[in-house]
Amino acid sequence: MSPSAVADLALQGQEPAASHSKAIRPSNGHSNSNGTKPTTKRTEFLLDRNLHKSFPLVVGGKGNLLYLADGRTVFDATSGAAVSCLGHGNPRVIEAISNQIKTGVPYLCSSFWSSEIVEELCKELINSTQGKMKRVYLIGSGSEAIEAAIKLARQYFYESDPNSPRVNIIARESSYHGNTIGALGVSGHVARRAPYEPFLMDNVHHVSACYAYRQRKDGESDASFVARKAAELEAKFQELGPETVIGFVCEPVVGAALGCVPSVPGYLRAMRDVCHKHGALFILDEVMSGMGRCGTLHAWQEEDVAPDLQTIGKGLGGGYQPIAAVLISSKIVNALLNGSGQFVHGHTYQAMPVQAAAALEVQKIQREENMLQNVQTQGAYLEMCLKARVGNHPNVGDIRGKGLFWGLEFVKDKATKEPFDPRLAVAQRVHDTAISAQFNMTMYPGTGTADGYAGDHVILAPTYICTKADIDHIVDVVEGVVNQVFQKMAGL
User: Fold this and answer.
1) Sheet holding 444-447, edge to edge
2) pLDDT (tens digit, 9 = 90+) per residue, 94-121?
3) Which residues of 73-102 are buried (b: 16+ CB within 10 A; e: fewer)?
4) pLDDT value at residue 26
5) Cα angle vertex 10, ends 9, 14, to 5°?
6) Which of 83, 233, 385, 481 can bridge 319 by disulfide, Cβ–Cβ 3.0-4.6 Å?
7) What is a single molecular function from GO for this protein (predicted)?
8) Residue 52 — very low, low, confident or very high, per pLDDT cuts 50/70/90?
9) Where in the sequence of the chain do the CATH 3.90.1150.10 domains occur?
């Protein structure tokens, strides 16, 4: 069976016969010395993530599984990068995309035209907030969403006063909000910022993250920890001058930068109260943690702390189309309506009908099949199993997360929380072992967890369709990988 035929079967909702899996080969036109085509590829024309690595070739996917050119079947325990929330090859979403393409208008210039499918998606999203947000700005990626949010936050104040002194943004250390210059400027991830520091905005200021594992004092209650964080934010407002601050940006659950670190209960409300006390905006980045990933459709809904601006992405379209969005509150919409009447911003590929068709179908499926309940149920089971099976491992320092969004932080010394030397690349070792032919499962690695350079974690973010049996498999692999990696490292 050809790779294209395998991919076609996956798109149609079928799984290739097991007897054919060994024969799968990529159709890339290049052969090895023995005449067979390669099953991994070091790219020749694409500027890939790592130019020194060869990557396994994927030829199809269905549900939780990815089919590789070497005949392997890999369990996707991370939904890519916490994106493929419905799994791979969902026939309803594929049909919705196909139907929109068949209309002849997968793309429309948003400067000239409107689209019913786009409006329907926006209505779905606003209704999902119980009306606490008012409008939706649709774009193509999480980084673009952050760029739009910080520009819109500035324009909110500019509408009433073009000479507004509000020019400062407060964000958090150990945060990651995207790779464009503006989004990276807001981010606090030291290593990712380092090459571009001369380019980054000098009006972004950082306070500490809400990172209980490394920051909570012995015996400190949630209330005391939150009060300390609120006092730090208040002090930053006073340092900058409250009248100069546009707003505060944070992730309700920190994703890639720290590995699924949830806010301590009461933290989001306390931070919002500080912002609103000074007339500043409260901005939440839910690109990774939102759209059901943490057990509620929007992560802020667990404590009912609605923001002024909210970014979403990843699980919005489930990987079937590149799409992200900014959800905008009434007060910001009203400032535009009563002022210029427009957002001074725009992208060529914004509010595309084909993007909206995919995202709308993803959201309908989640709602109609009550997938948030499964996220909560399987997430609680995943937490219990992880803590039971690897929680006492001497190199697993912390297990944290919410819903189907869990991180494991690795440490050299459990008592002192000392991280490993970054040169050991522990998180990458765990990932490479997990994805090898022995285990055939994805884990999402991250570094800089402790101080921006040192510190290792991996993320588990399985699909919303996963079952108890799938969770059992994930935890079995995690235990096997962790034990093997650290046994091999014992002498290092």
Assistant:
1) 396-402, 405-410, 456-460, 444-447
2) 999 999 999 999 999 998 999 999 999 9
3) bbbbbbbbbbbbbbbbbbeebbebbeebee
4) 33
5) 65
6) 83
7) pyridoxal phosphate binding
8) confident
9) 370-492
Token readout for 47 is 């500027």
Crossing angle between the packed helical segments 91-102 and 353-368, to the nearest 10 degrees: 150
Q: Which of 147, 176, 142 is nearest to 256 (CA)?
A: 176
Fold of 370-492: Aspartate Aminotransferase, domain 1 (3.90.1150)
Mean pLDDT along residues 252-264 = 97
Q: Which two tokens stand for residue 77?
A: 């325990």
Q: For residue 309, what are its two tokens? A: 């601006």
For domain 95-368, give the fold: Aspartate Aminotransferase; domain 2 (3.40.640)
| DSSP H helices in 162-221 | 181-186, 190-193, 212-215
Q: Which residue has the tokens 């799968």?
A: 24
C-alpha span between 65 and 463 (Å, rounded): 10
Would you state the structure tokens that stand for residue 396, as one six-digit string? 């697993």
**Secondary structure (3-state) at 227:** helix
198-226 burial by CB neighbour count: b if 16+ within 10 A, else e? eeeeeebbbbebbbbbbebeeeeeeeebb
